[in-house]
Amino acid sequence: MAEQSAEQASVAQAMAIRLWNSRWLLVAGVIGILIAFAFAGISAYVLVPALLLLLAAALLPTTGLRQSGENAAAIEAIGLQRLSGEYLAAAVADPLIIFDRSATIVHANAAAFAAFGGIAPGLSLPLKFRAPEMQTLLDSVLSGTIASDVVDYTEKLPVERAYRVSASSVGHGTDLYVLVFKDQSETRRIDRMRADFIANASHELRTPLASIAGFIETLRGPARNDPAAREQFLQIMQNQTGRMARLIDDLLSLSRLEMKPYLKPGTEVDLRQTVDSVIDSLAPLAHENSVVIERDFAKGPLNVPGDRDELFQVFENLLENACKYGQSGGRVVVSIAHADDGSEPGIDVTIRDFGPGIPEEHIPRITERFYRIDVETSRTQKGTGLGLSIVKHILTRHNARLTIKSEVGKGAAFSVHLPTH
């Protein structure tokens, strides 16, 4: 009896709370009904049921938002229960392997199969990954001394790849563990390129600096009172400072190009006028090297989208190289022609020399920074080893491409294909 009374009191209290929470809605409803009764001529028989319906609505639970939130949480829980470890592993882009306490593979995602091959449930991880660092990683996680650990691992076959491998337990009491392989190969390649670049640039600057320092010491000592030696040494020092200035200018050009890798479209460049200007500017160099520059330009407009100053630098570098390294051929031919092959309509600018040519094994690497076929010849010709790298960067910005064809003893041809739109 007491329990029944308590239950009734609880129900009454809940109804009172609901009425209080809905008080403003209830007041507004009553006012609306009374106005309708007074001005719309509604019958009293309709008024009473309307008031009763309003009271019933006010007594309904007011926790709809909370119930909606609870329903959403329940739906989310059901959805997560439907997700198996296999689905979650497949959603990870990096190679992922799930294994048990005996270091046996339970599951591997598609990225792991593609990276390592020969992986299947039931395979022993220590047999698959025999490197000492991987053995240590597995032992440390399986022993329970640490919850997770990370090591660097290199896979040798089929191609060498560097990974940052993390191992950790899955949840609590599942006796399952996971290995995730983060590919670091590209990052390490870039780091090596950066280190090589700094080493090469330092070497290129150190050599003329050492030469200048040596001549300064000589001028302050044995050659102090020797006018002929002083004039000779000062000329060499001037040449060396010029070499350093060219190297710094090229380094700054590369830096600027890397800071803005994409070209804003919209500017038209007249290739005929640009290449003519390049030929005119290098006429003294061609005369100095006893080289005749011949023109072979197509008729009609030769316009492409791009940056004139950058394209001028491209053709200047290529023509300067042709005059310096192909001087034994006696002539250089600069041609401009339309290239309408259907898929990539554009204009080809080809600079061909008739010198000693380039051995085939050097062609794939000739656009690398500081790469030289003949170091002594390059330095004699005042080359920095960065000219073709600058050409490659500028052409990339213009969505263009460079093609190099050469035959030893017959010269080399550098062709630039520029899209017309």
Instruction: Tell me the radius of gyration.
Output: 40 Å
Distance between the ends: 92 Å
Structurally, how many domains make up the residues?
Answer: 4
Kindly report the CATH topology of the largest domain. Answer: Heat Shock Protein 90
Which second-level CATH architecture of the largest domain applies? 2-Layer Sandwich
Characteristic key phrases:
421 residues, Beta-Lactamase, Helix Hairpins, 4 domains, 5-stranded antiparallel sheet, 5-stranded mixed sheet, 15 helices, 12 strands
Give the SSE map.
Elements: H1 2-21, H2 23-39, H3 44-59, H4 64-82, H5 85-90, E1 96-100, E2 105-108, H6 110-116, H7 125-128, H8 132-142, E3 148-155, E4 161-169, E5 176-183, H9 185-220, H10 227-259, E6 268-270, H11 271-281, H12 283-288, E7 292-297, E8 303-305, H13 308-325, E9 331-339, E10 346-353, H14 375-380, H15 387-397, E11 401-407, E12 411-419
Parallel strand pairs: 7-9
Antiparallel strand pairs: 1-2, 1-5, 3-4, 4-5, 6-8, 9-10, 10-12, 11-12
Structure report:
Its EC number is 2.7.13.3. The chain crosses the membrane at residues 24-57. Keywords: ATP-binding, Cell membrane, Kinase, Membrane, Nucleotide-binding, Phosphoprotein, Transferase, Transmembrane, Transmembrane helix, Two-component regulatory system. One of its GO terms (molecular function) is phosphoprotein phosphatase activity. It is an enzyme of class 2 (transferase). By secondary structure, the protein is of the alpha+beta class. The protein folds into four domains: 1-61, no CATH class; 84-184, Beta-Lactamase (2-Layer Sandwich), CATH 3.30.450; 186-257, Orthogonal Bundle (Helix Hairpins), CATH 1.10.287; 266-417, Heat Shock Protein 90 (2-Layer Sandwich), CATH 3.30.565.10. Helices cover 52% and strands 19% of the residues. The chain is built from 15 helices and twelve strands. The protein has helices at residues 2-21, 23-39, 44-59, 64-82, 85-90, 110-116, 125-128, 132-142, 185-220, 227-259, 271-281, 283-288, 308-325, 375-380, 387-397; strands at residues 96-100, 105-108, 148-155, 161-169, 176-183, 268-270, 292-297, 303-305, 331-339, 346-353, 401-407, 411-419. It has a five-stranded antiparallel beta sheet, sandwiched between helices. Strands 7-9-10-12-11 form a five-stranded mixed beta sheet. A hairpin with a 4-residue loop joins strand 1 (96-100) and strand 2. Helix 9 runs antiparallel to helix 10. The longest helix is centred in the middle third of the chain and has 36 residues, at 185-220. It is extended.
